[in-house]
């Protein structure tokens, strides 16, 4: 048993999912809108897209540390801020950045309108802090697009169907807003602007000749994200896959082509066997004896631990890994159970990812031989149809990444 | 011809104007919510009112300089920020303070809910930046009050009836929100918390033995506000008068009784002949010859100049005064007209205000004799049924205020 868990994602019931390939949703993260000059730059990019004949929807994150500052205020007031009020508070950052960007678009001589999550028709459930999008009622957006406006939507937020309260979507919420809008509008593409130029065959800090990938499949991106590539959160990729939204990761600060994230059948794919090598420097590994798996993972889920790899090789021992951020929660939980357990925090994870792996059975053998050749012995190995992941000692991670990258000839030609 | 101009105020069409005298609307200005400690203090005050058996609606301004900071951002982006987007932007400050206060109330063990202007049903026209309240749809507030919650409403903002856009109400907007809510809810009182303890017989900085007035009439308060008392803006007092809302000006930082602002017939009034002496240190006075009054004041209104006193004593000369903030606009306008004009900026205004003046014809004579007795000669005199206002040299303002205050025995007993 070896598996990677993805969050279950919601359905989108949009008004007009018939498809308008001339619509593009362009999402800009916090570093892309850190100050008013950068926001003006984003406005220019939106205007350029409109001048190229596209119908443009922008989704901006909050400026730099605005949301952190609001969170700081909340914790000055209360040790456990009331969830409804917390969402009301921390959702204002996106309203600020999007209205400022709309002003900048107006000054460039184009029409724009900024909409809150509620005004944009992002209807969610009532789970404050990690609401799920239930529906996108895109009437107002469509009307504004029809009127020739660039539409700016405050990311990360929605309105609850029952109580008409402001909700937030949790980490990566603005990405999710962008993808959900692209799905509801039937957009031709959802462009994710960030501070890197796309998805690489490996982390360029470890492998200087790593190559930007022109395209990867949703499944590859999910494995890469789960394996440490920080470019996109699982949740938005999963959502895009479920609703056939073509994603493109691009740099805010250059005109480079970026990386497409698309369906296996998409013509943009170059169908390489291996797409890349992802890694995490530290991913604690837990061994637990004498416990029922169902009981253990129910408890871990209840404690919001994002379990990554799960392995069971005998009836009385379960091995799992979880991100280093969840270590405290794991230890507290395991300490409270009447079980024998141990934890290692001197391991990282190296993952070889590629959709072509499915039909090439020799890949695993070649990967293990490569690691053996540089004297690296995996502590734990787990696989999926398109991924081979090895927990190795943290100090061995860089050379393992470089060796795999070379062995599979992933570098620039 | 001598008159004081008040802004025309809108009607309130509320859901339930039948009257719930146990409802109190408590409004707190920016200095009262300058930091999270002060917001927690406000929360305690709201809770105390609820514990006394009242149904409590709080209206908080934005914290300290939040709104100024947002305005600064807008002007970094654009020399003339788009009005719709500007309102979207600058209305977030109240959302922050009110949600923080709701968290603090929760931590005190009481239920609270913060509402945006839109959620609170503050429906306005579409004049961004100075919208007028058209209607208050108080269903959601009433439901929350029925559920035992303390309701916090973001002041200064509403939602436009036609376009569902966020609007702001202009200067003093949060006061207006509070009064409009009190009217719509039929509240027993609208308490305005500020950094002074009420309305005084004169500015205590000029007259140390000035006395806090337990109550004044709407008309007196309007004259006092127009004459330089900074406690409340004309607009909210006018609104309160038109909708029979009993106002009380109180200090956020003490439990002092404050000053009631009520109808002439209200039992709380002590029916003094003179209530107080208001003043402004500088109020420029303009003399314009050879112009039609209608034409002049149309042009001044179009330039948003808040003309205070207007006097005409011969067919070819008009005298008027306007606040020092409007001086540039006035000079530009007069310079562009083909007229002979002059301006004096070495004058201030001292005003004696009292509802009892109407039935006491000797007051004016006594006032002029008092000024004459200390060698102060008014440059211009204007009166209303409850006010006598004299423009005097700026350096004479303090002694004129003190002399009138003594002559009419307004000080503490």
Keywords, separated by commas or semicolons:
VC0802-like; alpha/beta; about 25% strand; 12 helices; homodimer; five-stranded antiparallel beta sheet; Carbamate kinase; 21 strands; about 425 residues; 2 domains; eight-stranded mixed beta sheet
Word description of this protein:
The first copy, chain A, is an alpha/beta fold. The first copy, chain A, folds into two domains: 185 residues, Acetylglutamate kinase-like (Carbamate kinase); 130 residues, VC0802-like (2-Layer Sandwich). Helices cover 32% and strands 25% of the residues of chain A. Chain A contains twelve helices and 21 strands. Chain A has an eight-stranded mixed β-sheet, sandwiched between helices. Chain A has a five-stranded antiparallel β-sheet with strand order 1-16-17-15-18, with no helix packed on it. In chain A, a hairpin with a 7-residue loop joins strand 12 and strand 13. In chain A, helix 1 crosses helix 4, helix 6 runs parallel beside helix 8 and helix 11 crosses helix 12. The longest helix of chain A is centred in the first third of the chain and has 16 residues. Chain A is globular and about 65 Å long. At the A-B interface, helix 1, helix 2, helix 3, helix 4 and strand 4 of A face helix 1, helix 2, helix 3, helix 4 and strand 3 of B.
